[in-house]
Amino acid sequence: MKNIQTxxxxxxxxxxxxxxxxxxxxxxNNGISVVAFTDHDSLxxxxxxxQLKKQGKIVPNWIIGIEISAGLPTELGxxxxxxxxxxxxxxxxxxxxLVDHCKKAQQGRRERMTQIVANLQGLGFDISVEACLSAxxxxxxxxxxxxxxLWEKASNLKVVERIRKDMERAxxxxxxxxxxYEEMMQRESQLPYVxxxxxxxxIKGVDVDYGYRIDFDTAVRLIRDAGxxxxxxxxxxxxxxxxxxxxxxxxxxxRLDGVETVYAMTLIGTKEGEEWRNDSLxxxxxxxxxxxxxxxxxxxxxxxxxxxxxxxxxYNSKTIGMAEKMITQSGVSTTxxxx
Length: 339
Description:
- 47% of the residues lie in helices and 12% in strands.
- It is an alpha/beta fold.
- Helix 4 packs across helix 5 (143-151) and helix 6 (154-171) packs antiparallel against helix 7 (175-186).
- The mean pLDDT is 93.
């Protein structure tokens, strides 16, 4: 094995499709040596942690983590909508404050889903709260589960197609909208998000924010208080609000432990993917300049993501030895990992 690693992965506890042990097996089959479990505002249960510990010192190694949906930094008012994702690595899954955050976040996700379902019904979609809960399987209900529930009804495809045609027509007289439309059509899996399931979607007002969300600095503090390292995930998704200048200021003030420098694998072959790759190169320079931690990986949700990551040496080669360097550089406790 080349010791390639993905320090950003999801299980069925949030919006992944495999459980923790299935993820480990899939990673091993694809030559991946280290996996971090970073589910959305969700931590592994006592039973899952016991299962992981029974694996012993094996390959792949595992790390308990989390991905917190947070608001913006205090300089920007802590605005909750369109904020950032903060990955915490080596966190204590039983830390009371972090556990309490997850409970509140999951309740907020369920309330948000209920509102979105009502809005989708108003557009003519055949969808229910029960269908979304069934699609989630785990405790963390997110937009991917809503999309999954939508696709289960053939009638919903006709509604999506109607909205797509509306956007296509509207884009003929709007250069910026035309660009978004063309990028969307390069990745048709993004249709629901671009058309109606995001804050800047073609149809406004369908997507709503969480009723509960903490700000950027509070998320970092939660992770650190749980013994973990706070890593800014896929910065490119937040750069329209957090400028490079502000990001460097935050880093220089040590309000972050690190940033992901490896991400965007699923965008390969798109204009957006090329832009994100350029961002990641700039982030590598920030890491070197300020001597902070570099992290990243496949952001894997499916078996195919692990397969693709294992085959993409242009991505996975940058993760070789990443966790070991992180441990040495930070001195973080490895209690909640197999290291």
